[in-house]
């Protein structure tokens, strides 16, 4: 498939913004493990955040493919900064798909404008890939839910104004997939505590937190979707967001490839320029081919989602392959830098560290392979 002119323009605009606004500051953000949130607000002002949100809720009304194209270009310039900006609407997909009209009008416009930020509490200290084994519980008390539990590795956990909480509301259900619900909570209340996680391997510009919920209250109308339907809503959510992660992997790989090409063109060895060595050319060719294949796969996957025909196996192929490609290309690119790639002065070291997360979050590569295999064998 080919991109139309609007999609090409979106890619170019996203690339220009990323190169102009955060390329030169990416190393600083990585070292300090922090981010300048004014860049997030500027990205909102320029229409790059929440593009998938419909126009009636003040979004651009674009598809998940366009949203992913922006992610690819941001991650091509710097993964940590790209994540810090675009993850600020992580959870809006759930509200748009399953929320009431009142919920959509209340929450979505503020996310697009950059006035508020949302997070999604899914993973727990003892429940990662197996989402159905969560322990966080929400108990009804009069006209509210009272929530107790803990969440781990929560993107923007320290910044978010609201957090969607994936929690048990129907513990008596025999089917574990019908026990959970999604509830939106305000994070500024007593009992909500977010602790920043330091020392991450990569995407250090992006805030990640451990969250504790102690008697956190939410009115019953903050239930998103149907009670007991949370697991199935979550699977629908991942069908959208995993394309986004695939785009992240492709963007990172593309950026790493470009660094490698630039480096070998300048380096001299064995009586000439490194770029003239056949072994180097083979490495570059393999890296570029894998990137093109991964890009085509996520384009096709996202296209089907936007057409209302999501293919979970294809989505998992795109996400797993993009993560594998990101790790492979970053490794090869660092190898081509030689000793220079091993020092922090060179951006490729940061990309090498950032790459691994694409194989882990929103479904590990093993989970993605399980989805693919089980889908094909049914």
Could you explain the architecture of this structure?
With 378 residues, the protein is of the alpha+beta class. It has 3 domains: 5-113, Butyryl-Coa Dehydrogenase, subunit A, domain 1 (Orthogonal Bundle); 118-229, Beta Barrel (Butyryl-CoA Dehydrogenase, subunit A, domain 2); 231-377, Butyryl-CoA Dehydrogenase, subunit A, domain 3. It has 12 helices and 10 strands. The chain has helices spanning 5-21, 26-32, 37-45, 64-77, 79-86, 92-98, 101-113, 230-266, 278-306, 312-337, 347-355, 365-377; strands spanning 118-121, 137-141, 144-155, 162-168, 180-186, 192-196, 208-219, 223-224, 268-269, 272-273. The strands form 3 sheets. A 4-stranded mixed β-sheet has the order 1-4-5-8. It is globular, with a radius of gyration of 21 Å. The chain starts with a helix and ends with a helix.
Spatial extent as radius of gyration: 21 Å
CATH superfamily of the largest domain: Butyryl-CoA Dehydrogenase, subunit A, domain 3
Tell me, briefly, the overall form: globular
Number of helices: 12
Give the % helix. Answer: 40-55%
Main sheet record: 4 strands, mixed
CATH architecture of the largest domain: Up-down Bundle
Strand fraction equals 15-25%
Q: What is the CATH domain class of the largest domain?
A: Mainly Alpha
Largest beta sheet: strand ordering: 1-4-5-8
Distance between the termini: 28 Å
The counted number of beta strands is 10
List low-confidence stretches: none
Number of domains: 3
Class inferred from helices and paired strands = alpha+beta
CATH topology of the largest domain: Butyryl-CoA Dehydrogenase, subunit A, domain 3
Task: Give helix and strand order, one letter per element, not per position.
Answer: HHHHHHHEEEEEEEEHEEHHHH
Average pLDDT for all residues: 96
